[in-house]
Structure formats: structure tokens, C-alpha cells
Amino acid sequence: MEKISPEERASIRAASEEVSQQFRSLIDTADVDTIKHTQHQILGRLQDSNAVLSHFNEYSEQCYAELSGEFARKTRLLKSIKSDLDHIFTKLRSMKTKLKATYPDAFPDSATSEMLDKRPDLDSPLQ
């Protein structure tokens, strides 16, 4: 690598000062100050939002910790109830099959049962 002479250094310094002066003339100081002020406002708002979200996350975590045990108990209870109901309906179907075999006239056929069944259809939308 070659050494730079003092005259070349001075020339480079003058050229870089000229380039930086040209860049400074392209930028309006008032615009830069406005941009800085706007960025500072945005930063403040983002910090406030971050604080609110952090507080909400802490609150949500606390609520979840309080309720998760209860949700687990209720879920186990519902699964137990479903299992019991499945067992009951299996027994009822079995009993109905035996009764139908023993007393065929005790249960009306499907056309007659639809006429006798006056309960509303809960699967269809209300009109």
C-alpha cells in the first residue's frame, strides 16, 4: 500500500468537505427536525402501547392460572357425563330391541311415530 502525501490528504479532505456540504444543502433542517419530533412521538406511543400490552398479558396469565384448574375439572366432569350417557343410551337401545322383539305392537312404525312426535325439530332454523 502506498503512502498518501500531505497534499493529497488536503485534497481529499477538501473534496469530502465539499461533498458533505452538498449533502447538507440538499436536506432542509426544519424537515429533519420535524421527522425527529414525529419519530419521538411515535416512540412514546409505542412504549405506552407496549406497557399496556405487557400489563394485559400479565393479567391474562393470572386469570388463566386461576381458571385453568377449574376448566380441567369441568372438562373431566363433562367427559364423565358423556361416558355415562353413552352407557345409558346403549342400555336403552338394548332394552328397546328386546322389548320390540317380545312385543312388536308396542312400538309404532316410523311413519306413525313421526305423526305422534310433536316435539320441535331443534336442528332446523327458526322461522
From TrEMBL:
Annotated Gene Ontology cellular components are: BORC complex
Basic and acidic residues bias spans: 115-127
Give the GO terms filed under biological process for this record: lysosome localization
For the region Disordered, give the residue spans.
104-127
Entry-linked InterPro entries: KXD1-like, KxDL_dom
Locate the KxDL domain: which residues?
Answer: 23-107
State the family named in the UniProt similarity comment for this chain: Belongs to the KXD1 family.
User: PANTHER family, from UniProt?
Assistant: KXDL MOTIF-CONTAINING PROTEIN 1
What is the name of this protein?
A: KxDL motif protein
Q: What's the source species for this entry? A: Rhynchospora pubera
